[in-house]
Amino acid sequence: MKINQFGYVPTQHQQIIDELRDIRFLDLENIKIKSPLHLFRSLLLKSFSVHQGETTRIAKIASMMATETVDADSYTNGSGTLSKSAFYNVGLQLLGFTVDLDFSLTNPLKMMTEVGLPIAEVTDPLTRDDVIDAWYRLLNTRTKFGQLLIDKLAGEGYYHQFLADETFKRPLIFNGKAQAVFDTDHLVREVVYVESPLDIDHDGRRDLLKVKLIRPAETDRGLTVPVVYTANPYGEGTNDKWSESWSHDNNRPLKRKQPNNFTYRDVQDTYDHSKVPVPRTINGHTKQAEETFTMTWIYSLNDYFLARGFAVVYSAGIGTKDSDGFRTTGTRDETISAISVIEWLHGDRTAFTNRVDQIAISAWWATGNVGMTGRSYLGTLSIASELTGVGGLKTAVVEAGISNYYDYYRENGLMVSPDGDDADVLAEFTFSRQQSAADYAQIKEPWLAHLKQIKRDQDHDSGSYNRFGDARNLLKENHAKADILLVHGLNDGNVKPAQVWNLRKALKSKSLTQKLILHQGQHEYLNNFRSFDFTDIVNLWLTNKLLNVANQANQVLPNVIVQDNAHAETWHGYQDWGGQEASIQIYQLGDDQMINPGGHTSFSDHLDKSQFETYTKDINKWRDDLYSRDGSPMDGHCIRILTPPLVNDLVINGRPSLALTVKSSQMVGMISVALMDYGKANRLTADPQVLASQQILTGYHWRKDDLKEFLPKKKANDVKRVVQGHINMQNRENAYKVDDLEPNTEYQLNLVLQPTFWRFLKGHQIGIVIYATDMAYTVRGNQDIRYQVNLASSTLRLPELK
Amino acid sequence: MKINQFGYVPTQHQQIIDELRDIRFLDLENIKIKSPLHLFRSLLLKSFSVHQGETTRIAKIASMMATETVDADSYTNGSGTLSKSAFYNVGLQLLGFTVDLDFSLTNPLKMMTEVGLPIAEVTDPLTRDDVIDAWYRLLNTRTKFGQLLIDKLAGEGYYHQFLADETFKRPLIFNGKAQAVFDTDHLVREVVYVESPLDIDHDGRRDLLKVKLIRPAETDRGLTVPVVYTANPYGEGTNDKWSESWSHDNNRPLKRKQPNNFTYRDVQDTYDHSKVPVPRTINGHTKQAEETFTMTWIYSLNDYFLARGFAVVYSAGIGTKDSDGFRTTGTRDETISAISVIEWLHGDRTAFTNRVDQIAISAWWATGNVGMTGRSYLGTLSIASELTGVGGLKTAVVEAGISNYYDYYRENGLMVSPDGDDADVLAEFTFSRQQSAADYAQIKEPWLAHLKQIKRDQDHDSGSYNRFGDARNLLKENHAKADILLVHGLNDGNVKPAQVWNLRKALKSKSLTQKLILHQGQHEYLNNFRSFDFTDIVNLWLTNKLLNVANQANQVLPNVIVQDNAHAETWHGYQDWGGQEASIQIYQLGDDQMINPGGHTSFSDHLDKSQFETYTKDINKWRDDLYSRDGSPMDGHCIRILTPPLVNDLVINGRPSLALTVKSSQMVGMISVALMDYGKANRLTADPQVLASQQILTGYHWRKDDLKEFLPKKKANDVKRVVQGHINMQNRENAYKVDDLEPNTEYQLNLVLQPTFWRFLKGHQIGIVIYATDMAYTVRGNQDIRYQVNLASSTLRLPELK
């Protein structure tokens, strides 16, 4: 077990006293206690003060051991000193660790050091000031079950006892983070309809967007609160079945494309801002919404903030159930749909109480400060909003968002879309208006026409960057000004790491603070892991950006936090990702040092029929065979090159690339490359495992969450793909210009792989697998094409951490 | 999709009107409406009355289609009639079904018939009375997401709007079921310590038992409520790691036992009631508890009842954290621990506010009526309590409980315990007092002595029924008087179906009503399935037994409900299980009609070393090889006999058995038998799959639950084990008398398999696999023993449904 903590704010003694007074651990009575031991006892008694009876509180203390032989009640009732070991013996039991299982009473500090728990700098025995400082640090230490001790106490009702007291601070900040002092039993849930400056369904009226909001009841008594806003196109339902019929069949040949001489201007898209109908007449104003809702989707990160005095707002956007408009998959229209809600929250746009009466309702309970959250499409809309520089948006916490749709479905002139997905499929998937029968009856024809237009314009067969793609390149216009916290999985094969890489690069030109967290998972949320205090980091971040608390969030948090792939539960802080700290090392693929187990320099992309069918049904088997060092049915269908075993650990930080000299035997061709880590190891699973069910308390009798972790696999294995890349040999220059391709002619390809941050352990070997059809991503026509690679004039370039 | 409903109570028109008034769908205003169409509109408007604005309510109606071309708003605003088809088009949309995906507006009744949704007996067009009756039936129809429409509306806030009204009935009964009219935002959570008549840890004081209770806030204003009580030994934590060290190694040989002439008297245990210390002095009385708690375990069935005016009580019992005593794994002491809580709830026993002050607190908020719930060990304690006839216990809903511990770990003189579990392992696993360091420090020595005594007395090696086992045979004393609802998985390999079979048999001698539900899962809870209204059934049951509502629960519910193994999502009602409705058919195993694919009549139980090691690591592979018809590495290690393909479906209802004539080549021997279903089919998975996440609303802004189902496997396969059995050849007469065993001598074995309810489809073949070592259950010493079966004098007896 390892526990990493990045969200702690170093705090001075006087500030500690003030904060402990604010949260009522110190009061007029116990501040006077001179004995360190008795002060400790007083703090312990307060930890259990949710119980009305003092006997019960003492029993709780008596159930813990302070030394090997004396329980914490007897110990703190004495007249002696408070040893460091006794303090932490009790402290660890408060943190949920079990004596003799997790640690030994003879030496609690040993386990704390091993696990990474902070030990306060105190003398032994502790002075009175030491007790105060160490107690503060303990409250800000993470329990065995992945949350801060103060959050666990809050979950058990610690703050709840003070809620009747008008003088109790709300919001309440402790160590820079907003505390769970809001009453989630009385949240107000309302629906409003924001009038967007859009008319996507061309019905002559501005599109109304359904917005669901949850706000603390305290807002009804004058408090204004910041907003955590999630734009979630899936939020009103998805058309799982209906969208299937739009998906494309990947079992088709790679087609030759007609060469062209396109420049960017040929594919440049310009957004048409015209033709927005005038706003509706406002027939009146009210502060009272008239519709409520029940959520069935649970987003525990947002729920955590509801207990801490933030409102939470959800909007599914244009083309979703109870809203107007159509889904467009990533255009400026969807961005405008997302930011219309922020504009309303910021006081810059109108919302109505219902879709008919035109009675306006403002976000009168909001401070106007908005932060966005969400993963995947939800994160994509956060990125899109961020890049507009819309007023009111103070930050976004983006998990695995798309910054350019071209890189989502396509790569270097190739389709790379598992299951034949494309923009049309996703548009139909999210078009939940179709589930509202009466609504759909009125718009069925224009919707189908619109969808067919998407299907035509995306030009699924070509894989080239075109005007359709340009309209969905969110990075094209960049007015970003809000600080941003980015999160991405280095093993995310859905929204790939290049999305966040390119976004970071674009944001570097702007005057804003950006932070990045890279984990070793796939397409996952991070807010319930034991080894990493993600939720606390987000709290520190949003308390800073939305509540304007000067908590040093920008200074305390490293610019880049990376989960180590080779050591479980280990997270490191770095200055940057792929910046000056890495230097490019070049490996000649034909070099004598390099190992080519099969001795191949060419390969056939054609598999015999049964083998091909086996692989299309069992992609994992295909991967195993492809990535094995040698001696699999994929020998002769790829080229594998390995470095000698590494003499030291080697860390790649950035984007590997290859310069390849390749011939195709036909007038079409594609090349795929995988960068491999060979070497026996118990590697981390990229799917989180549940460590403890429902143990995380996000508030008092509020949402619980499972504790999770990326755990090492039980079986060691030899092979891990680090990153990959694909290229259409007809797109050697860029993704929109189509080059000619002569059979059996050598061409230079420059293939940039996905970016990564990867530790190759000493003794491991770096590998490169060069192949063509990617059964998981590209079209798979099982064409009779032979590829020849001139290894002598091919190189691998690796950005290696100095 | 199929939806089966057993919990509906047929109701007369006048009663329907009264009930609809109670739940406020009919009121003084709309009762006067003459037009069926306009009455329907009024009911629809009330369905959405949680929204304050009439415009919003109308918009909700307008979003549904009544006919292929007219929406429900326009339709119900007209002056025409209300067609049956329009009623159900709207009704299905209210139930969450999607137009064009789940059903067609041209013929809603077609889909309803296919899925099994009830269609009210009404004329077309509907009369005014028809509208009332059909609306009532619709509210009591299950939605696409596995709950009644009225429960879905309640989850969205329907009842919440009436809570401020003092005249609104609480509890409120609708169609015989308690409604979600209680405010779960203000539940009272308290801890008390019940003083049990036990002193298991021999400290000279009666053992105090921690009890957690959750009661509606309405009890503070004079309401008394019944209790749903779950005795959960896992509830205060489990010693996963510590108990591992106690587990036994199954890789050991079967040992010869010394023959004896034991009669039952030699193994009979008598419970020692003496030596209970006197009760503690009561120092005072209070109504006010002084300790509260936070739950991390979620039991959604209990939570469902919290919203419906039942209190919920949890107790982990003797030997768990914050209680006294030791774990004993299934003795009378654990039973007394469980019923002590019921006695307190019923007013017959003392509880204190804490462990020290001896201030008594009664369950003053309780009616004294208690029903128990829970699965596995939890269900076991329900059975144990039921059999005592304790006052106050009105019913138990038992999911997969143990009725006799001998049958849990042992069978016919053999250990049949996966992973080498036994009573000692389970005692240590549940002894959560060990997690409380200071408590454990005081009792470590006596606990370890107690645990070692369990280890000695259980006599793990022998597998025989002994005095230790007799002390854990719950069926020995039977004073049962409470009606009982039993639930068991026919594929439960943990708590096997014989446990419920034997319990049912024992309860038949008592004057009580018992109901049984048999599903096709393993060791699973049933309360969130789409195809089956388990939660509604339990509601009907507890409303009858605990609230004393005359809702005809005993008459409405079939005695036995069985999930069909051969047809997905299909549940049938039966009169009995294994009673007169089945007749015994005898199959001679050596008959010419029978197929013996390998031609074997003898087999060696010895595997070569690598094969043996492969199987111990991969039990599923062993099973596949064993159960395959022929041509696997297990050929020659078993005998397989098949019937010819069946000409018609054949249903087994009861306990199959075999009379076998067998020789062992050694002085020890065991025989295992599996009854097989051979024939290609997409069989049901025994693990439930999630159909829809968090869609079940158990109350208003209260607990949500995932919707689940046992789905057919995507791949057809040939083989399914139906039931199995094991016997030690030295226990030919019974489990306690050890017989002699001469090598190479024929013995008659009578082996009764687990009971079942199983449909063999026409064309399938019934199979018997006879083998010895069961890699999954028995010891596995890989001994060199050869078994010979005299097939000519061996028979299979099947109880077949007439």
Question: What do you see in this structure?
Answer:
Chains A, B: Its EC number is 3.4.14.11. Chains A, B: One of its GO terms (biological process) is proteolysis. Chains A, B: It catalyses: Hydrolyzes Xaa-Pro-|- bonds to release unblocked, N-terminal dipeptides from substrates including Ala-Pro-|-p-nitroanilide and (sequentially) Tyr-Pro-|-Phe-Pro-|-Gly-Pro-|-Ile. The structure is a homodimer of 802-residue chains. Among the domains of chain A are: 13-164; 580-688 and 714-801, Jelly Rolls (Sandwich). Helices cover 25% and strands 22% of the residues of chain A. Chain A is globular, with a radius of gyration of 29 Å. The first copy, chain A, is built from 22 helices and 31 strands. Chain A is an alpha+beta fold and 802 residues long. In chain A, the strands form eight sheets. Chain A has an eleven-stranded mixed β-sheet, with helices on both faces. In chain A, strands 18, 19, 22, 27, 30 and 31 form a six-stranded antiparallel β-sheet that branches. A four-stranded antiparallel β-sheet of chain A has the order 20-29-23-26, with no helix packed on it. Chains A and B meet through helix 3, helix 16 and strand 24 of A and helix 3, helix 16 and strand 24 of B.
